[in-house]
Amino acid sequence: MDHTPTTADHAVSTDAAVQAQLDRLWSLSPGADVLGLDRITRLLARLGDPHHALPPVFHVAGTNGKGSTCAFLRGALEAAGYRVHVYTSPHLVRFNERIRLSGRLIDDAALAALLAEVLDQADGIGASFFEITTAAAFLAFARTPADACVIEVGLGGRLDATNVLPAPVACGIAALGIDHQAFLGDSLEQIAAEKAGIAKPGVPLVTMAYPPAIAAPIAQTAAACGATWLASGAAWQFAVGDGLHYEDAAGSLALPLPVMPGLHQGANLALAVAMIRHQSAVPVPVAALEQAAVATRWPARLQRLSRGPLTAPLGDVPIWLDGGHNASAGEAIAAALPRLLDGCGARRVTVISGMLANKDAGGFLAPFAGMVDTFVAVPVPGHACHAPADLLRVAAELGIANRLTAHDIPAALAQVAAARPHPDAVLIAGSLYLAGEVLSGNDEAPD
Questions:
Q1: What is the DSSP string of 157-213?
Q2: How far is Cα 364 from Cα 106, in angstroms, rounded to an integer?
């Protein structure tokens, strides 16, 4: 199953050999989201079933927070001295970001050869962009020595291409919210059931705490397959205050708060800690969990941008970037913003936003009502997106008085830089694809 429509991924490479394989991928794939495990299963069989030869796997689903949870897992495992493979999506700037081999992004030569090998075996299957990418990652992971794998679900769980994994050492579900309704359903109950589909017999399914109506399908799915369901508030607990206070049957921990901003990152760290502590295949000492809290970063999650080509015109004005794009993400970002603003004495906040057409712009932007001085709407380059004029109408309904449009991020930042007085702070948010454009333009590609 594809994480996003293949026509929207726009994976390009400066390496000619990689680009040649990406061009093949476009011509082969069906060009749309497809559901089911049949194609990925047949493709992997042609490749020798590499997913049966992986190091111990941590498998993570969720609407929001699964990428950050994967980052905390990787941080803790590497701090413990382990070599870790990581598979995440989507990429922000370079396709290589999706596949991390023993701690390093896959290099262009290895990626080109890997894609060529998978594409050579994919004829007639009709595999999607995400299915082929997943097969390539699993093949690389099986061939490269490592001690653990951290694998992020692309979309949903039950029918996601990563769900061919036979026996992870731990499965996790992060925060749940409404997103990708065309594939996962219009209710949180339906979405929860799809996410819980990653549960496996005898494997701990570690989740956040959810209201009873949402917890019920998770409990039912876990029981039906023989997974051990371990929910926050029952099997383990955490609280975010001056630090992260965590407790389970094995004891309590007092960990530092994550360096990544927002209370929601404390929850993501807690989930990663719970996943690690409820499996025994890859032991991790407390010191490594502490190191993960203070050292883990994940791009485009309330990332403070450095001085670069895009940000230079605004001088010392702090600019944060977040790829959040649904109502739950909007709530988390808005909740984190006051502390960030207080930390730099900011009062006048400008939000620059562009969103894909299939996202709920009103739901995402509503939590920012009353916090924003100026709103600038931009398109998301190369993608079907909300017209800036439509985003302005949403901003007007939320009572944001100062509303502008710009044809791209550089133009938006130029308008903001020319404003008098300057804003005290800027937030760019609404799309991971837009975030990728920002990181690329500011020479801050993830590494």
A1: STT-GGGG-S--SEEEE-B-----HHHH-SSHHHHHHHHGGG--TT-EEEE----HH
A2: 34
C-alpha span between 173 and 209 (Å, rounded): 10
Name the pLDDT band for 182 (thresholds 50, 70, 90). Answer: very low
- Give the separation between CA 298 and CA 275, rounded to whole angstroms: 19
Instruction: Give the count of alpha carbons within 13 A of 353, CB side only.
Output: 31
Chain mean pLDDT for the chain? 92
Question: Which of 184-223 are b and which e, b meaning 16 or more Cβ less than 10 Å from the residue's Cβ?
Answer: bbeebbbbbbbbbbbbbeebbbbbbebeeebbebbbebbe
Residue 374, strand partner residues: 350, 402
Q: For residue 255, what are the β-bridge partners?
A: 244
pLDDT in tens, 16-53: 999 999 999 887 765 555 778 999 999 999 999 999 99
pLDDT (0 to 100) of residue 19: 94
pLDDT at 183 over 60: no
Region 235-243: what's the mean pLDDT? 97
Query: What average pLDDT does range 321-344 have in this prediction?
Result: 92
CB-based contacts of 23-27 (< 8 A; 24+ apart in sequence) = 24/115, 24/116, 24/119, 25/115, 25/119, 25/129, 25/132
Quick one: which of 219, 205, 100, 93 has its CA closest to 149? 100
The whole-angstrom separation of Cα 371 and Cα 334 is: 8
**Residues in Cβ contact with 204 at an 8 Å cutoff, skipping those fewer than 6 apart:** 170, 171, 227, 228, 230, 275, 278, 279
Q: pTM for this structure?
A: 0.94
Amino acid at 235: A
Residues 6+ apart with CB under 8 A from 368: 330, 333, 334, 337, 351, 398
State how beta strands 148-152 and 57-61 pair: parallel
- Residue 1 has a pLDDT of 30
Of the CA atoms within 13 Å of residue 238, those in its CB half-sphere come to 27
